[in-house]
Amino acid sequence: MEEDFIDACDVLQELCGLLSGYRYELHYHDNGEYEYLNETGVCITIFNPYSENKMYIDLEEEFTLSYGAYHEHYYPNSTDYKEMVQTIKGILDNELCSATMYSGEPLKWLGSTTITKAESRERPIKDVFSFILKIKEFKIRLNTDGGEIYYNFWNPSDDKVIKITKKA
């Protein structure tokens, strides 16, 4: 069975259509801070009307979605592309947030994911961050240094910070 590879140029117009109700810019390799892009890559920068937190979509050999401390890499096929589009819509509709766990002081990033608004209120932290908490070194850091959890929504009125106290 042949893989359904999607070229970045093929989805750029579709993504711009999806973002038509938002202010966004396209950036290329020769745009100063975007020189990390390959020569055919493009970064769509979506401006947040509620805060300074922008969303970035990098379209290169793979697709990368970044919002807050969260970033996800997507293989350029139809399945991953559809998943990325659903995540973009969820964040812009304020139904998904960037959920990030940090340890220590100053805060050190341990990992990020996206969760729904309902999960941010109801799902236990140990379940949201199970992918982090199964790493022994990270559990030790949280126990000895404490930490914080940030739930960052597109509209920051729904943001939440949870302190993790160090164990005695």
β content, as a range?
A: 25-35%
Strand order of the largest sheet: 1-2-3-4-5
Arithmetic mean pLDDT = 94
Structural classification:
alpha+beta
Shape: elongated
Radius of gyration: 18 Å
Our measurement of the CA-to-CA distance between the termini, rounded to an integer number of angstroms, reads 56 Å
Total beta strands:
9
Order of helices and strands: HEEEEEHEEHHHHEE
Number of domains: 2
Question: How would you describe what is shown here?
Answer:
With 168 residues, this protein is of the alpha+beta class. The chain folds into two domains: 86 residues, no CATH class; 69 residues, no CATH class. Helices cover 30% and strands 32% of the residues. It has six helices and nine strands, in the order H-E-E-E-E-E-H-E-E-H-H-H-H-E-E. The strands form two sheets. The chain has a five-stranded antiparallel beta sheet, covered by helices on one side. A four-stranded antiparallel beta sheet has the order 7-6-8-9. The chain is elongated and about 55 Å long.
Summarize this structure as a short list of keywords or feature phrases:
30% helix, 2 domains, 168 residues, 4-stranded antiparallel β-sheet, 5-stranded antiparallel β-sheet, single chain, 6 helices, alpha+beta
Task: Summarize the topology.
Elements: H1 8-18, E1 24-28, E2 42-46, E3 55-59, E4 63-67, E5 70-74, H2 78-92, E6 96-103, E7 108-116, H3 117-122, H4 125-128, H5 130-133, H6 136-145, E8 147-152, E9 160-164
Antiparallel strand pairs: 1-2, 2-3, 3-4, 4-5, 6-7, 6-8, 8-9
